[in-house]
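Researcher: Structure for this, please.
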Amino acid sequence: MTEAVTKIITIDGPAGAGKSTVARLLAQTLECLYLDSGALYRLVGLQTARLGLDLDDANALGAFLEGLRPEIVSDSRGFRLLLKGEDLSRVIREPWVGQAASRVALLPLVRAWVTGKLHRLAAQRLVVAEGRDLGSVVFRDAAVKLYLNASLAVRAARRRQEWQTEGSSPSSEEVAQELADRDRRDETRAEAPLQVPAGALVIDTTELNPQEVVQQCLDRIREVLPGPGGLAMKIG
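Model: Predicted structure, token format:
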């Protein structure tokens, strides 16, 4: 296992399970880099939709990805993407972009592009990385693997609240259906399906607040990496 890999903590799980909130809080606690793989898929989904790109045209998609070089601003506080001076951090969170991201995430060329970006960003750093295949595929040898889940009803309520904050007002039923559809796509796709990574700690966040989830994550880190030289040094 390389030194770079031993510094990586992955958090996987379905939409609405609390990955982003917990990952950011954990990165702040550990004073380390936060990586959001979903933001990169959302970027690809956004830009291919803007360009009207034919996702079935492998040559066109490959050329597009070759030229897609966002500026990535990442630290313990967040993960921002800028493209040609445009800050895309808010627009990529719009519901329709999430749907576009789900579609492009099925494509091996896109997954390879995102994986390459994540590997370069994570090299020789202490990292908390969140997504859907990070512990199972992208960082298989990560030091600590966490998997968050929650009931569909709770996940839908959380996501609906996020979308209302951003100006969208879908019904609870619409949000639940969207998440259920997304779950099916993620769990059944041929390329890197959503699954619990081997050796991961599974945390049901249905009845937990973010601080309680973070505490369970920190307990796991102390268990796996105790004493001098481990990540636990960052948290005392």
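Researcher: Any notable elements?
Model: The chain has one domain: 3-226. The longest helix spans residues 172-188.
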